Amino acid sequence: MGQDSQNGEVPERSDEESRTPTDKITPLPKKATIATIIVLLSEPIFTSLIMPFVGLFVAHLCDITPDKAGYKSGLIVGLFMLGQVLSCKLWGFLSDTYGRRPSLMASLASGAVLMLLFGLSNNFYLSCVIRFVQGFLNGSRIVAKAIVADITDSTNQAKGFAIVSVTWAVGFIFGSVFGGFLYDPVNNDKTKWMGLSKGGFLDQHPAFLPCFVITVYNALAITSAVILLPETNKDCVPFSMAHLYSRWFGKTATEVTVSSVGDANGEEEVLATPIPRAPPTLTYAKAMQLHPIRNIALFYMLVAASDIAYAEILGLWIVAKKPEGLEGFADDVAVLNLCFSVPALVSNIFFQNVVRKFNNDFLLWRLSTIVLCSSLVLTPFATLFPSVAYYWTLVCGLSLQVGMSWLYSLVYLISAKVSPRQWVASVYAVSQTFASLARCVVPFVVSPLFAWSIDGERTFPLNHCLVFFLAAVPPAVTGTLSLTLDFRPVVLPTADTKMETVDVVLSDDDQSRGYSVNAVSSSLEPDGGFRDAPVPNHEESLRLSMKRQMVEEKRVDLSE
């Protein structure tokens, strides 16, 4: 073990420690964990801040009624996610190549400035542009998830990624709370105590106050990262524009650094420090060729599609007029989301224990999809009981948060299990690209679809129930696919690998958790990619597996 994790230092993993099975759970490094939690909360707050008031804000900018705002509100939400789609791979590459800290600082600083600009905007199309740029420069969560993978081992991995999941749920909820309570403080009942006058600055810029609060929070996140967070990527190289250009655009070097010169007597003179070798780059093409990485990215995308559909429609549905809506206000959405934080927090606190109890990640996945889908299907029936409609929505939302939180935790946990350590951030970037794509496209579809469903008297199920039912489809699909898809861990070839072949031998624990125990074999192509290779016969696999020792639960030492 490296430094004492209780003192806040990031533990260094040695091969000897990883090879030795132990029941003792390694404590998470306190300082790095605190800083990472603060950073992880940033993106979901950015994403969800506008959810409670997006309909009212669009109505304010475009001078239309909130019932008609659904036709345009999806644009503001979707463009933020589109920016992430285009930049996720870039942030993963920067984090894996040049380190976690510089990537994190750049993302957080740009987010703070752009959030302030969004609050000052008084034009619909300018607001859309700002949200797009904000999404493009928002890579903090990708980097933070890679940090969690860096500072955890096989004994505390579930706990670490439960933290990732709970920060998304809690951050998403608190972003909605800030947006609902602080939007339009001049006319908001919850902020009338401030004594603000009509016609003033905050009346002309109703979204400025919540945006300013989030800007301050991002400044806090930057400060905590500077003070508490060490660099956890031990394979990073110093940043240079020449190196960035050669890695990103695939150019070869034109200069060679001579590190030493020897003479006939064996004496050697050091001339320069050799440049450390950067980890191989994971491209989208390679990721799609590797079935486990492709499959977990698909699962992440489908879960995110359901999540953003519910978040987008909940606010529009509550403020819509009866009988299709609940005819509430933005602060009603905020109160609901504040209540939703309780099961999201509790379910993730006990996630590690639940994972051990089930001892099968995919069985827990299927149970979580059942809870989530049932809650989504039951929610719109609240309009049948007007006197208790609000509480019906609350109960369904509480159970929904349990299923959604566990699905996100499992996505992060399984991603870490199938990823080579050199590609952790890049795998998260690829997965988040797919998730961001879903979060980009879905608002463009569900917002106008919901506006259409409540525009006039439509019969069941084409009324307001339609979008809730559609939101339940993606998680149901993942539950079915979890029975058949491949989630075997991927191992990169190393310099010690003989005949350019990698064999993955899984432990009995992997088998019990639902992972395949068939041998995986891949060969390294000249460009660093993978191609299929014949799987050794049973006797040969058994002979090789007996000569290898486990490095982690799912990885092996490839040298003989």
UniProtKB/TrEMBL annotation:
Major facilitator superfamily (MFS) profile domain location:
32-490
Q: Which UniProt keywords apply?
A: Membrane, Transmembrane, Transmembrane helix, Transport
Instruction: Enumerate the Pfam families for this protein.
Output: MFS_1
GO terms for molecular function, please?
Answer: transmembrane transporter activity
User: For the region Disordered, what residue ranges are annotated?
Assistant: 1-26, 521-546
- What CDD domains does the entry give? MFS_SLC46_TetA_like
Q: What are the annotated GO cellular component locations? A: membrane
Q: Which residue stretches does the UniProt record annotate as biased composition, category Basic and acidic residues? A: 10-22
Q: Does the keyword Transmembrane helix apply?
A: yes
Instruction: Work out whether the entry's keyword set contains Transport.
Output: yes
| Compartments reported by the entry | Membrane
PANTHER family named among the record's database cross-references: MAJOR FACILITATOR SUPERFAMILY (MFS) PROFILE DOMAIN-CONTAINING PROTEIN, MAJOR FACILITATOR SUPERFAMILY DOMAIN-CONTAINING PROTEIN 10
Its name, as the record gives it, is Major Facilitator Superfamily/Sugar (And other) transporter, putative
Q: Which species expresses this protein natively? A: Angomonas deanei
